[in-house]
Design a protein that fits this description.
Elements (H helix, E strand, L loop, with lengths): L6 H5 L12 H18 L7 E4 L3 H9 L6 E2 L16 H5 L18 H19 L4 E4 L2 H11 L17 E7 L2 E9 L3
Helix pairs in contact: 2-3, 5-6
Length: 189
């Protein structure tokens, strides 16, 4: 699950370390995420575990969605954009034409390989917990897209192919032990 809307996510500003609250719209949408999680899960018991990024926007989304209190996992934090924190892609492209987080470095931040290593640790942690029940991960856009790519065994940059909008849910499943995406970017109505 990606956190709900913040002022910066609504404006397309890259947000990693900056700890922003949800907007009023984000708060309303986060409250609708809980019923969507229940609908997607069906009659299963509540999730065994909820793991969240340490950022307020993620923990607040989990609380408003009515999820059990999350365990904060630092590895679920957003891709560190370094010097590009708070900037939009068009602003970055004024000095670096064609820049994307998927194809170019983030000076003073993380590389795709740094994010891959964190995503792999999160997936390993979730897999250990998953043996006993469902696990909900509450995080951020770019990181969650890398997480989906890595779950499928793809390179971290393959995350470019997955949408994960604010308040969206992606369900990682399997077909007889083979990883698959059961839902991508499901949104509450």
């Amino acid at each position: 699950m990606r956190h709900a809307e913040t002022e910066w996510s609504a404006a397309g500003r890259h947000t990693s370390r900056t700890d922003l609250p949800l907007t009023a719209t984000g708060e309303r949408r986060a409250a609708l995420v809980g019923p969507l999680v229940s609908a997607l899960r069906g009659p299963d018991p509540p999730p065994l575990a909820v793991l969240s990024s340490p950022r307020l926007r993620a923990t607040r989304t989990a609380a408003l969605a009515g999820l059990p209190a999350p365990t904060v996992v630092d590895d679920l934090a957003e891709w560190d954009y370094g010097q590009y924190e708070g900037l939009t892609t068009p602003q970055i492209r004024e000095s670096i034409p064609g820049w994307t987080v998927w194809t170019h470095p983030c000076p003073g931040g993380e590389s795709a390989e740094d994010v891959r290593a964190r995503a792999d640790r999160v997936l390993a942690h979730a897999a250990r917990l998953r043996a006993d029940g469902d696990v909900v991960l509450v995080g951020h856009g770019h990181f969650s897209r890398v997480l989906a790519a890595r779950y499928l065994g793809l390179p971290p940059t393959a995350g470019v192919h997955f949408a994960h909008d604010a308040g969206g849910i992606t369900v990682l499943g399997n077909d007889r032990g083979v990883p698959r995406l059961d839902r991508v970017n499901a949104q509450p109505l």
